[in-house]
Amino acid sequence: MGKIPLELCQTNALQNLNLANNNITGMIPRCFYNLTGMIMTSVYFRYNDGYEENIETCIKGIQLKYTKTLKFLTSLDLSSNKLIGEIPDVLVNLKGLNNLNLSRNLLSGQIPSMIGDLKHMESLDISMNLLSGRIPPSLATLNFLSYLNLSFNNLSGQIPSGNQLQTLGDPLAIYGGNNELCGPRPFRSCNRENLSDTHISEKEGKDDIQDLGLLIGTVSGFVVGFMGLIGSLYLIKEWRAAYFEIVENVYTWLVLSILVTLSPIGKKFF
Known about the structure:
Largest sheet: 5 strands, parallel
Radius of gyration: 35 Å
Number of strands: 12
CATH architecture of the largest domain: Alpha-Beta Horseshoe
Structural class: alpha/beta
Helix content: 25-40%
Strand order of the largest sheet: 1-4-6-8-10
Strand content: 15-25%
Shape: elongated
CATH superfamily of the largest domain: Ribonuclease Inhibitor
Number of helices: 4
Low-confidence stretches: 43-51, 196-204
Order of helices and strands: EEEEEEEEEEEHEHHH
Distance between the termini: 99 Å
């Protein structure tokens, strides 16, 4: 429980940090950019003779145990906690990461646009959060990526394409639970409206304002014109007489037209 202690940021040689399933609250510290051991891929754990480290961590959706290969693992696992706020953009500086697991938290905001800078990333899991916005196209540049899970967020827009992303398996397992995403089957197809949801929303808002302005202008013009006509008839006697004469003539013409139309019908019955 509690927040992530900032003292961790002073551990420069740290390569593997696993705080999963600890009911941790608060935000991911921005000082994580100080974790030099996750930036430089040449920094490895050193072991005493006769001592072998054993670490279990969730990578690629399964629990794996590392022993002799631990020195090749650079991992940050903060999954299954109660972390809030955005994913700090400073995490993309940890270029040595093989595994980043932030799943099952309450993280919001957008995925960092430069996520593609994590060139050594093999497993990325940020599923089951409150993330929104588009999936960064830079994700398609991760050539070593073999596991990706972005499911059950509020992501929208087009699913990026790339040679590596096309080989990751079932798209539903990767992107499912994001109702506003579009792309290849089984997702809805992307059209112009899908590809520019934000711009469309802004355009619709502007169109609504323009339509409302047009309606107000039309109604205002009618009211002003009508009131002008009434005022003119009230003030100018000649116009008033001419107006009522026109109305009387139109009324007489309508009555005569109706009588002429109905007269053949009346003859048939009488």
